[in-house]
Amino acid sequence: MQNNSAFFSGMRERRSHTIPRVQLRQTARRLYARVVNERRYYPEGSWGWINQFSQRLFWENPGATIRPQYAWGTVFAATLARALGHSTVAVIEFGVAGGRGLLALQDIAAEVSATLGVKCLVYGFDTGAGLPEVTDIRDLPQLYKRGDYRMNFTELKTRLRPETQLLLGSVSETLESFLAAAHPRVGFVSLDLDLYTSTRDAMKLFRDAAPLNHCLPRVVCYADDIMGPASADLTGERLAIREYNEAHRTCRCISLIHGLRYYLGWPHNRAQWPDMMFWAHFLDHPQYSTYDGLTPNPQLPL
Domain holding 138: CATH number? Predict the structure, then answer.
C-alpha cells in the first residue's frame, strides 16, 4: 500500500513538472472554445473570416494570447490593405512602456504577414523615459506622475525583429519624423499614451492631409485608457477622441466598432477589450469607397 502511494505521489510530482497547471488550464479552455465557437465557412477576407482567423491567433500565437486586441486589429489592417492593392501595411503602438505590447505586436505581425502575404511593419512610439511631467488637469495627475512606465531600452532593443522600429522621444516630434519618411500606409493603431495631451498629439496622424497620404481609408484603433479609474469625457483619451470628432464631424470620425463582441468567439465575446476598439473613418480618403470584400454575397437564397 505504501509502495502504491509512493508510486502515485511520484507520478503526480512528475506530471506537475512536465505540464504546468497554467498550460493545462489553457489547453482545457482551447478545447472548450473549439466546441462552443462557430465553425461555419466564410470566404477569405470577409468579416466572418477575419473574426475566425483572429480567434485562431488568440490561442496559437503567443503575442495574440496576451494582446488579442492587437491580433484583431492587425488581421483587419492586413486584410483591408490586400483588398485595396497594398502589399505592405504599418501597425503602430503609441506608448510602448516596458515593451511587452510591442513584442506581442511583432509576433502577431510576423504570422499575419506570412498568412496573408501582406508585410506588416511594426512601429513603436515612446519617450523611453516614462511619462513626462504631468501638469495639465486633463492628463489626470491624480493617476499619473513623471517617470511612470519607464522603458529598459537596452533589453528591449535586443528582442526586436528587423521589421520593428522603435521611435524614441516626444510623440509630437517623432510622429513628425515618421510622416516625413517613407513607410507603408497605417492600418492599425494602439493608443496607450495614458495622457490627454500625448494622445491629442498622436492624433496628428489623422489630421489634415496625413490620413490621405499615410493611412488606409479605415484604421482600426485600440484605446487603452478609456475605462476604469476617473475615466471621463472631459479628460484623457476620451477627451482627445471627442475633440477630434467635433473638429472633423463632416467627413471623419473615430467611432466604436459597434457590437464587435457579438461576432467574436468565447471567451473574447465576454472580455472588455472589444468595447475599446474603434475605427477611424476618413470619408475624404481616395480609397474610402473602394469595395473591400467584407460582405461578399450578402443576400441569402430563398
Answer: 3.40.50.150
Give me the pLDDT at residue 19, please. 67
pLDDT tens digit string along 280-291? 999 999 999 999
Give the residue from 255, 99, 118 showing the smallest Cα distance to 184: 118
How many domains, the chain? 1
What is the DSSP annotation of 170-186?
-HHHHHHHHHHS--PPE
CA 297 to CA 302: how far, in whole Å?
Answer: 13
Signed CA dihedral, 168, 100, 188, 273: sign only? negative
Residue-by-residue DSSP string for 201-266: HHGGGGSTTHHHHHEEEEEEEEETTSSSTT--TTSHHHHHHHHHHHHTTTTEEEEE-TTGGGGSPT
217 neighbors 288 (Cβ within 8 angstroms):
yes
CA 17 to CA 197: how far, in whole Å? 49
Task: Classify residue 187: in a domain, yes or no.
Answer: yes
Confirm whether 2 is domain-assigned. no
Domain that holds residue 168: 44-282
**pTM for the model:** 0.90
